[in-house]
Structure of Toll/interleukin-1 receptor domain-containing protein:
Amino acid sequence: MKYKYQLITLGSDTPFIENILSLFNSRVSELNISLDSFKIINRDNFEREYLGNQPAFTFYFGDKNGNFKDVEIAKKLLEDGSMILPIFFTEDAFSDEIPKVLENQNGIQYKQIENDRIVNIALESFELLRNTRKIFISYRRDESSSVAIQLFEALESHNFDVFLDTHSVGKGEPFQEELWHRMADSDVIVLLSTPEFLSSKWCEEEFAEAGAKQIGIIQLVWPNHNIEKDDTSHISYPTKLKKENFVNDLFDDKDASKLKSDFLENIIKDVESIRARNLAARQDSLITNFRSIASKLGKNIVVQPERFLTEDLPGDLRRIFIPTIGVPQSNSCQTAEIRNEMRSGKVSIRLIYDDLRIRKKWIDHLDWLNTNLNIDIKTLKKQEFESWLRNN
C-alpha cells in the first residue's frame, strides 16, 4: 500500500483555509516532496477518502458564535489517535469558540502572522519537518547584547529552542565545543550584523561555520553598518535595519537598545518561514553527496518521494538511508512509509548525517550504539560514506 499524508480541514468555512492550504503546498514544494504524497480532506469527501491507518493531521477552525460543525468527524479522528489543531479567533476565547470534545487539545489563536507556524505544526506532525525548532543567535556582546537577549526571550516564547551563549552553556561544559555543536544542530541562525561583528575572531568563525554547514542565516544589519557582497551567501537572508525599527530610535547602546514589537514579530515570522527551505537545502546536500559516492562505486541508490534513499539487494532485502539534519535522533525514521517498510523484516536503516562540529561525546555515543546494541537503526557519518559503501 502506498501511504499518503492526509491533511484534513474541519469546522467553520473561513476564507483563511485557502491561505493555510496554499502556504502548506508551498512549504511542501520547498521540502522537495511531491504534492502527490498528500490528499486534502474535508467534510465533503471524508467518508470516501479518509483512511484510519494512514497518517492524518487536522486543522479545526472554531466558530465565534459557538455554531460548531463536524464534531462527530472530530470524535472519530480522536478515536483513531490523529492529531487535531484547534484554531480559534478571539484572544482568551478558546473555550467559547472550540467544541468541548477538543478542550484537551492545544490550540492556537489565528493571526495572519501565525500562518507559517500553523503550517509548520502540520509538517512537524507528519515528521517531515524537525520538531526540535532549534535557533542559534550569533552576535557581538559589546555591540548588541540587549537585542540578543530580547530575541532569545521572544523566540523562546514562540516555542523555539534558542541557543544564546550567555544563557545556554552549562557550567563546566567546554564553551567553544558546545557552541559549534549547538550551531551544527540548529535550523536557523539569527545573526546580528553590527559594524564590528566580523572583526571578532569568534563571530567571523561562526559565520564561516554556518556557510560550511549550509545553515540558513537571517542577517539583521544594523543601521550604521553596510554588509559587503562577499559577506553574504546563497543561504543568507539580509535585512537592513532602520533606526525607526528600534524603540526610541536607539540602536547603538548594547545594554539598552530594543527592537519594536511589531518588527520583532516579523523576524519571528521570517524564522518560521525559512525553516523548511533550509532543511531541504541541507538534506539535498547530504543526498547529493551520498548518491554521488554510491554511483561512483556502481551502486543504484533511489530517492523516494518522502526524501529517504533506498537500495534494493538480492533476496528482497532493502537498505534505507535517511538524511538527518543535526544530531541523529531515533524519531528521524518515523514517517509512515518507513514504518511500513520495517514491517517486512527485510529492511536495514541508516541515518546519514554530517558530523562536522558535532561534539565528540555525541559521535562516540552514536558509534557505541552501532557497535554494542542489536538495533535495527544505525547511524552513518558523512566522512565515512565512501569507506562504508565500498565495504557493504
Summary: The longest strand covers residues 317-324. The longest helix spans residues 261-296.
